[in-house]
Amino acid sequence: IRGMGRVGAGIGLGMVLGPVIGSQLHVLGEWAPPLAAAVFAFAALLGVFFLFPETHPRHAQHATPTPERPRVSLAQALAQPGIAPVLALFFLTFIGVTNTQVSLGLLAQERFGWGEREVGRLFALYGFLSFVVQAFALDWLSRVARSLTLVVLGTVLVGAGLACIALGGHPTWLVVAMVLVGTGMGLLLPVLSSLASALAGPELQGGVLGIAQSAGGLARVVGPVWSGFLYSRFHPGAPFLSGVVATGVSLLVVLSLLKRPSART
Fold first, then answer.
1. Residue spans per domain, the chain
2. Residue 45: exposed, middle, or buried by beta-carbon count in 10 A (0-12, 13-18, 19+)?
3. Rounded Cα–Cα distance for residues 135 and 148 (Å)
4. Residue 70 gets which letter from DSSP?
5. Which of 74, 88, 120, 257 would give a disulfide with 23, using CB separation of 3.0 to 4.6 Å?
6. Residues 6+ away with beta carbon under 8 Å from 196
7. What are the residues whose beta carbons fall under 8 Å from the beta carbon of 243, sequence distance 6 or more?
């Protein structure tokens, strides 16, 4: 969990700086934030190419020959005890958060007349809390509580935050919501990755983690469409209420994992 937390802390730091930079660049024009994002993405590509060491034994220089690990199919991953519920948790977690990323700005503008800077500060707060949890608190929490306990705590925090967004009639509730959601996601993402890794075992670890990320990616595909439909068809708070429902289903999934001895870590 410690390693996953450090990776997540780096992502959280980017989520602190990204909204602030984007909201400042927006004054130059609507083209400026996407262009800046493209520049940062290209810089990341260069960093990976020139700075990252090769970790695949077959391609590393002066590596001793090692047997190649078998490719992991979705069917193989699902056959592993506990993996299917973890994939469901990845999907449900990301579909709830995608609702926030897609619809929060629209809701803040419609209810409170907020613009890009105010919404950018909300997402910076979200990223800051995720960074603090993953960089400073997660290591200690993982030593005093089981992984599934942390998943329950993170899920409850995210659900409470989404409920605050859906039902809150004052801007203060949006701030409270981002504190809750940021803290909850700071717990959930590294712990879920660690849990998937532990359940997969060393031979299937990489493949299962890739499939788990794909489950989150599928939620990022479905989520914006679903969120936009709910927002336009029903009510500005509807996407966030659907996120609350998703967290409720997540808690039921965690209960199914608690019945598996292999997942009680």
1. 2-55+74-263
2. exposed
3. 20
4. P
5. 120
6. 83, 86, 87, 90, 208, 209, 212
7. 95, 96, 97, 99, 100, 158, 159, 162
* C-alpha distance from residue 181 to each of 160, 229, 259 (Å): 8, 22, 27
> Who wins on pLDDT, 34 or 230?
230
79-117 pLDDT, tens digit per residue, is 777 788 888 998 998 888 888 888 888 999 999 998 878
> 255: helix, coil or strand?
helix
pLDDT > 60? residue 49: yes
Element (H, E) at 193: helix 171-200
pLDDT tens digits, residue range 10-36? Answer: 665 666 577 667 767 777 787 888 888
pLDDT at 168 over 80: yes
Tokens of 172: 């203060």
Number of residues written out for the chain: 265
* In the block, residue with structure tokens 């001793």: 64
Q: Tell me which CATH code domain 2-55+74-263 carries.
A: 1.20.1250.20
